[in-house]
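This part of the workshop introduces the protein records we will be handling. A record pairs a protein's sequence with a compact description of its fold. Comparing a sequence with its tokens is the quickest way to learn the format. To make this concrete, we reproduce a full record directly below:
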Amino acid sequence: MAAGPSPGAWDHPTALAPVVSKTRFGGAVPVSVSWPVMDLRALRCFVAVAEEGHFGRAAARLHLAQPPLSRRIRDLEADLGCRLFDRVPTGARLTPAGEVLLVEARDLLERAERARARVRDAEAGRVLVVGTAAGAGLEVGPAALAALRRDRPGLRVRLREAPVTDPTAGLREGRVDLAITRLPFDTAGLTVRVLGAEPVVAVLPADDPLAARESLPVTELAGRPRFRLPPGTDERWRAYWLAAGEDAPGPVVASVEECLHAVLWEGAVGLLPAGAVRRHARAGVAFVPVTGHPPSRIVLARRTPSAPDPLVDSVATALAEAFTADSVPRPPAGP
């Protein structure tokens, strides 16, 4: 039986064909399986020896010790079932079979390099989409982008702001590669990393008696009309932002702007992240810090990968480092 696969052979394209024998009835049945060692690395070794005409010089060219190079050539000869080189006093000379293989090997290596270049070009032209929900991560975006442009020139990143009804920010539908969002929501099938925590504020009409308070317990909003997310929204997400019984009256909203319109035009109240004070301040609306409600945990989420994605990894790292450098409060220890 031919030699088994050399270490690392699985990383390279190769044709795997079983050895078969004929039965007396004319059918072909496998009697053994030969795992070829003719991978790209073996072919590079072969071409180097053929071009140098000497094992020592080829080993130096490949930055290998000579014994492993010689072993690889012997394995290749055993796999093909023929000699590729005649050993001569001056080094190594191609046999007729070796001359045939040299032409084919050069062609295979050139095609492999072209394929590698095309894959790299496709990756370089890829636009990575980062989703965000409920304003999460908007403050650190510029710092993260600056780091990415420094470390990965030419990288293109597009931000997609999801409606507040989708806490996965488009991950579930495959609309984004990575999401900066907030817990709690159903994270099944996702990999989630907590980055920080942000307090929440009550949003009220500016003329509401509670609007003048420096802070207020969330329970003091009980009995008020509450803006709410529509049925079908993730249950944990919906319950966190409602912070009231399902029977509480109030308008159904699907965006932060609709939340603010509900406050202005319908006298509704509700909860938003504290960052809304900076991003959505306007006449007629007041924001008051609340107590008795857990802060909003900001997270980096992605689909649990079946294979590594270096580009997504690099963007995730840049975003996480930007959060670390930012003044976003860290979440308390615990589950």
